[in-house]
Amino acid sequence: QVQLVESGGGFVQAGGSLRLICTASGNIFSSYGMGWFRQAPGKERELLASISWSVGSRYYADSVKGRFTISRDGAKNTVYLQMNSLKPDDTAVYYCAAGLLPKVNAFWGQGTQVTVSS
Questions:
Q1: Which of 65-97 are b and which e, b meaning 16 or more Cβ less than 10 Å from the residue's Cβ?
Q2: Strand, coil or helix: 90
Q3: β-pairing, 10-13 with 112-117?
Q4: What's residue 55's pLDDT?
Q5: What share of the chain is helix, strand, coil (3-state, %, to 5)?
Q6: Which residue in 86, 56, 57, 81 sits closest to 69, CA to CA?
Q7: Exposed, middle or buried: residue 15 (CB in 10 Å: 0-12, 13-18, 19+)?
Q8: CA angle, residues 39, 109, 77, in degrees to nearest 5
Q9: Which residues, including other chains, have CB under 8 Å from residue 75's CB and lie 6 or more apart?
Q10: How far apart are CA 57 and CA 106, in angstroms?
Q11: What is the pLDDT of residues 19-76, one digit of tens each?
C-alpha cells in the first residue's frame, strides 16, 4: 500500500503560480511512477503529468506543457507540481497518484482544490 497526502492548493489570480506537494509513504516500488491528475466539475479526471520514480523521465499533457513542471525528491518521498501562468480553466481538484507507468492510477491522494480567478 501507498499513502499519498497532497498540499499546496488554494486560490490564485490568472497568471499566478502555485506549487502542489505530494508526500508518499508505504511501499513505493522503484518501478512506480507518480502523477498529478485533475478533475473539474462535469469533466473526466485527466492525467496532467507523471514522473518515473527511479529514472525521472517525465510526461506532460498538452494542456499543461510549458506551464507545469513535475519533479521529485527521493530522499523526502515527495513529488511536486509547479504550476505557472495559471488560467481560469485550470480550476479543478488536483490529485496525486502513484502506480505503474503510464497510467499511475493505483493509489490516490485525497485531492486539493485549485481555484484560478479571472
A1: eeebbbebeeeebbbbbebeebeeebbbbbbbb
A2: helix
A3: parallel
A4: 87
A5: 5, 55, 40
A6: 81
A7: exposed
A8: 125
A9: none
A10: 19
A11: 999 999 988 777 889 999 999 999 999 999 999 988 889 999 999 999 999 999 989 9
The three cell numbers locating residue 23: 508526500
Cβ contact 71:80 at 8 Å: yes
d(CA 96, CA 103): 12
* Residues constituting the chain: 118
| 68-73 and 58-60 strand pairing | unpaired
DSSP string computed for 92-109:
EEEEEEEEETTT--SEE-
What pLDDT does residue 28 have?
77
3 state SS for 21-53: EEEEEECCCCCEEEEEEEECCCCCCEEEEEEEC
